[in-house]
Amino acid sequence: MTAMSLERARTLIALFLTLCLLTFAIACGGGDDDDDDEEEGPATSTTTATKYAPSGNEGSISGTVAFQGTAPEAKPISMDADAACGAANSNPMAEDVVVKDGKVQNVFVYVKDGKLDGNKTVDSFTFDPPAEAKVLDQKGCQYTPHIIGIQTGQKLSVTNSDQTTHNVNVQGNNNPKFNQSQTAGQAPIEKTFARAETLIPVKCNQHPWMKSYVGVVKHPFYGVSGPDGRFEIKGLPAGTYTLVAWHERFGEKTQSVTVGAKESKQQDFSFAGGGTADSLSGGSLEVLPALELPMLGKH
Known about the structure:
By secondary structure, this protein is an alpha/beta fold. The protein has two domains: 1-43; 59-279, Immunoglobulin-like. It is built from two helices and 21 strands.
């Protein structure tokens, strides 16, 4: 081997050893960073919520949702595309606006947050979900009820009472989406929601006029206004709450309400139109953050 070749070989060996040392140093440095990350994880503490135990001094909130001014007229639905729908529903009307005698139906009213007596917040507690499933039926080629409330972990049972095939399309943002066909007489579709979300739209791909909304909360403190505009929320511990009334066309209203021990509190809402909650982008209508915290008892 010539002197020049020997020198070149030594140079290559030196470069190779240098690269090996650099690689080893980088690998060791990366390992130190990973160790730091692992040490930071356990340092982050999480608050464990306490299961709420009723005291017997709980109160309630009830009220009426009114409409001021001239309400939009309900619109008829054409079901000519499916003869079975027309046979099952002789006078179908849209349910996005239902106002009778100045009272608004299908308003979802729920406790968003609050502070209880004794300086405890509502996120200090949890409630077990009810064992009874909430039923969303497809009858007369419309979802019944139009607005439904449910607790996280509670079973939703979707049934088909029609003599035609429906397609249950639930497009949540905080919860898994599902899109499933359901033929006449088929067994119920059963689902649960792990996270609060208000409100999740439910559609039918077979019949585009069909629409419903599911309000998912982590507690039982919600209600839906009936044909007379009335709603009621029971079992509230004494405290001050943020109460939200949501409507798919009129938007939402928020009020603060204080409930004393065993008090039956009256709290009314009113809408005047002009809201466009239904025009919000995205699959789920997140009008307000939906109790992403362990409330007394998921939007």
